[in-house]
Amino acid sequence: MTSHVQPVNPMSEATVTAGLIVIGDEILSGRTQDVNINATAVFCADLGIELAEVRIVPDDMDMIIEAINTLRARYSYVFTTGGIGPTHDDITADAVAKAFGVALPINPDARAMLETRWKESNIEVTESRLRMARIPEGADLIVNSVSAAPGFRIENVHVMAGVPVIMRAMLEALAPTLRGGRKVESRTVAAGVGEGTVGGPLGKIQEAYPDVKIGSYPQMGHAHVMTYLVMRSHDIDRLEQATAEVRKLVDTLHAERNITIPEDTSA
Predict the structure, then answer these.
(1) Burial label, 233 (beta-carbon count in 10 A; 0-12, 13-18, 19+)
(2) What pLDDT does residue 9 have?
(3) pLDDT at 6 > cutoff 70
(4) What is the pLDDT of residues 137-158, one digit of tens each?
(5) What are phi and psi of 132, to 5 degrees?
(6) Per residue in 30-52, is it b (16+ CB within 10 Å) or e — as a string?
(7) Is 203 helix (H, G, I), strand (E, B) or coil?
(8) Do residues 136 and 96 make contact, with C-beta atoms less than 8 angstroms apart?
(9) How far is Cα 20 from Cα 197, in angstroms, rounded to an integer?
(10) Which of 64, 93, 190, 249 is the most buried (most CB within 10 A)?
């Protein structure tokens, strides 16, 4: 099967974007709690890459293929986690090969990496373990400094392990190969009122600053009402202008209601 999906050219975008596909029945069943989404979000933010979408899909060939083809056409980079181990339900490599319409042979470099580690650990080479050396044709290996079993990169899709410590090691190995974008800065203003009070005028500020993302996040567990207003943008000047408008709004609301924000909750 040959795919005709054309990946986004990451060099053509001022903003570098990414999508993440978390693969595994164990995530959706609740058996395993995912921590890779947060790790990827932090990693992308540090590089100035905007993580724009996350999908969690089961160990289903068609669903994995659909997610890969959709996201690789939409974003500069796609990261996947999970499904590249030695068992029958580890089908991510198979799905990626089918998505790109290429073969999935045992890669000699991947096999050498694995056999070297197995020899050191006195682990038997088996057909099942060699599944981890199957790499789509045309892909480059992603070094795994933890357990040797590599991930791989094909065009703008980066396939990594689901085990968190291994996945983070693979991200670090990838970092020098990725193009960063404009860093997103954020500002936070603490409002001692609920979302219902601040929502209307905050919406008008958002309309005036469409290039600044403004979010409101009510906080539970405080002895008083508290809503954090967070502004995010690549454009620092516009960010500061929008933040000044939000602070002015909050100060006005506080003055009208004689509200004082405790120091430990101010932003």
Answers:
(1) buried
(2) 45
(3) no
(4) 999 999 998 888 999 999 999 9
(5) -75, -10
(6) eeeebebeebbeebbeebbbbbe
(7) helix
(8) yes
(9) 35
(10) 64
Contacts of 247 (CB under 8 A, 6+ apart): 189
Sheet holding 213-218, edge to edge: 185-191, 227-233, 213-218
Nearest one of 253, 252, 247 to 196, comparing CA atoms: 253
What separation in angstroms does the CA of 146 have from each of 38, 123, 174, 221?
A: 20, 16, 14, 40
Distance of CA 36 to the CA centre of its chain: 8
What sign for the dihedral angle of Cα 25, 29, 169, 72? positive
Q: What is the CA radius of gyration of the chain?
A: 23
Tokens 């992308």 appear where? 44
Question: Per residue in 199-215, pLDDT tens?
Answer: 999 999 999 999 999 99
**Alpha-carbon 70 to chain mean position:** 15
* Alpha helices for the chain (secondary structure H): 25-29, 36-47, 61-74, 92-100, 108-120, 164-174, 195-208, 236-257
Contact, 188 vs 267, CB < 8 A? yes
pTM for the model stands at 0.78
Which tokens go with 180? 């960063």
CATH 3.40.980.10 segments of the chain: 10-177
* Distance separating alpha carbons of residues 120 and 123, to the nearest angstrom: 8
In which residue are the tokens 């002015």 written? 248
What CATH code is assigned to 185-265? 3.30.300.100
Please tell me the CATH code under which domain 10-177 is placed: 3.40.980.10
Residue listed under structure tokens 């990414």: 18
Cα 230 to the center of its chain, rounded Å: 20
Q: Could you list the beta-strand ranges (E) of the chain.
A: 16-23, 49-57, 77-81, 140-142, 151-154, 157-160, 185-191, 213-218, 227-233
